[in-house]
Structures are given as structure tokens and as C-alpha cells.
Amino acid sequence: MATDQKAQQVAPYLRTLSEWWESQRTFYEAGVDAALYDALQLARDSGLSPPEWVIEGALDIVGCRLKSGPAKGKGKTAYYKAMRRYHRWQAVRKAKDRGATWVDAYGEASEVLTGTFAEGGNDLMKKDYQQVQKDLKDPKKALQYYGALRDAQIMTGTPMLSLG
Length: 164
Description:
mainly alpha; 2 domains; elongated
């Protein structure tokens, strides 16, 4: 019963926790390291034992890091930047879905996101909306938004991406 409740909390669009693990594995094997990170967090936060692929993936990444030395540079990760762009895209999309003009949609998105990690002006909303629209058409680039992919598919009416 507790496992079913965790599955519902963590992956509301999937039926079971094992499907969620498999979804994360598919993304990780397609090159999305953030999926491995999310799987590790779920295991830690829930007290569940992770599948073997999670342990192997973590060991591979740590091993590579130890061989190459510490990361250089500062700034936000690519995943963080992708999620910020995605939240801007989502806010513009919601405004457009309510009937706003493009100009009003960018302004509304800017207002809605004020005070969040995705805040920005109208021009930035437009730029990021256009970038995400372009990225979602390319299956490889769409993977950078993997954390929000199901939501994007529902909003745009597109089918699940084929990762194979």
C-alpha cells in the first residue's frame, strides 16, 4: 500500500512505481543524467532500494568525475536552465490557451513568474518560448526538458517521444 501511494505522489501519470523507474531508466540511457539524479533522490527520500541500473549509473558518473577531476566554472547547470526556459514556455502557453495575444501572453507570463526562478521580462519570455517550441520538435533536444515532458505532451497534444 505504501509503495502504491509513493508511486501516485511521484509519478501521477504512471500506474506503478516500477513504470516510473523504467521511465527514468529510459531517459538516463538516452543521455539524461538528471533522470538518474531524480531516481537517486526518490530512493533516498522514500527509503526504497533503487534498481541496479541506478547504482551502476551512479558509480559510472562518480568514476568519471574522479578520473577527470572537479568540475570547472560556476553558474547554473544545463538542466536548471532548461527547466527555467520550460517554465517560461509553459506560462506563455497557458496565457495563449486563455486567448491572450502574443504580446499580452509574454507580459502575462512575465508577471506570473515574477519572484520565481524563471522570472524575466517580456523579451526573455518570447525568446525562451520560441526556443522551447523549436526544441520540442527535435526528440534529442526535447530530452533536456524530460522532467516536464509529460506536461508538455499534454499541453501540446503530442505523443510520447520515441527514444529507441
